[in-house]
Backbone:
């Protein structure tokens, strides 16, 4: 074999090795950047009911389907990410926390017009806005070791006027030994921390304890046939 042919073969082999190495590197990067599914729904027992009377109001908790279907991806450990549905995971716990504060909470899937809200006996309505963040101190395990859950809650009267804007955040941490059986444990703790703080924050908001939040009577003159169809919802 001539030296020119030998050099050409060697060059081609080096090119093939480089291509294989590049392909393996891309594959490793893709496999190492997985988004693992978790849940951040806190346990019912972690939402602590405060003593004392509740605010005399009926609240419409508006969480539409597009919010429930929203999937969020945030950072985990080891270069990986985690994905979850914040509104879906927190819906039941949020309704419970609000039920600890207000006399009655009705879950709504759609916004109601002013006359419909009054007909349903709603004093206030609120569509929550959730933001989340997470991360990990570990380079070898993917579940988050710390989590932050923040809520912005605009409380509106039936006429669409803002009565109060309540904002709260919660933080949660978990170690490797703890999240073996609960990969979203840091998120669960952050959500519970936020919701417990939220209850106190609402009680401390004077606009939500005033006359604007007193229950509005259902119009007695209307017959059931004259009322618009009731929006499906769950009372808490």
Residues:
């Amino acid at each position: 074999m001539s030296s020119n042919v030998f050099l050409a073969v060697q060059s081609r082999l080096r090119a093939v090795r480089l291509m294989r190495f590049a392909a393996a590197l891309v594959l490793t990067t893709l496999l190492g950047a997985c988004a693992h599914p978790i849940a951040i729904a806190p346990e019912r027992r972690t939402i602590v009911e405060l003593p004392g009377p509740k605010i005399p109001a009926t609240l419409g908790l508006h969480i539409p389907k597009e919010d429930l279907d929203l999937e969020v991806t945030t950072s985990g450990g080891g270069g990986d990410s985690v994905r979850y549905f914040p509104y879906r995971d927190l819906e039941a716990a949020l309704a419970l926390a609000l039920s600890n504060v207000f006399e009655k909470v009705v879950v709504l899937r759609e916004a109601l017009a002013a006359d419909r809200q009054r007909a349903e006996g709603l004093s206030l309505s609120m569509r929550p806005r959730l933001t989340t963040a997470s991360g990990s101190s570990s380079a070898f395990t993917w579940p988050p070791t710390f989590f932050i859950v923040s809520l912005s809650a605009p409380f509106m009267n039936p006429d669409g006027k803002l009565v109060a804007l309540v904002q709260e955040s919660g933080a949660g941490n978990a170690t490797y030994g703890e999240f073996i059986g609960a990969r979203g444990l840091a998120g669960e703790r952050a959500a519970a921390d936020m919701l417990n703080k939220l209850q106190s924050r609402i009680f401390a908001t004077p606009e939500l304890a005033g006359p604007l939040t007193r229950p509005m009577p259902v119009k007695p003159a209307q017959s059931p046939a004259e009322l618009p169809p009731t929006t499906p919802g769950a009372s808490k």
About this structure: Confidence is low (pLDDT under 50) at residues 20-32, 213-236. The longest strand covers residues 162-173. Strands lie at 35-37, 55-62, 72-75, 81-84, 102-108, 124-126, 129-135, 146-156, 162-173. Residues 1-31 form one domain.
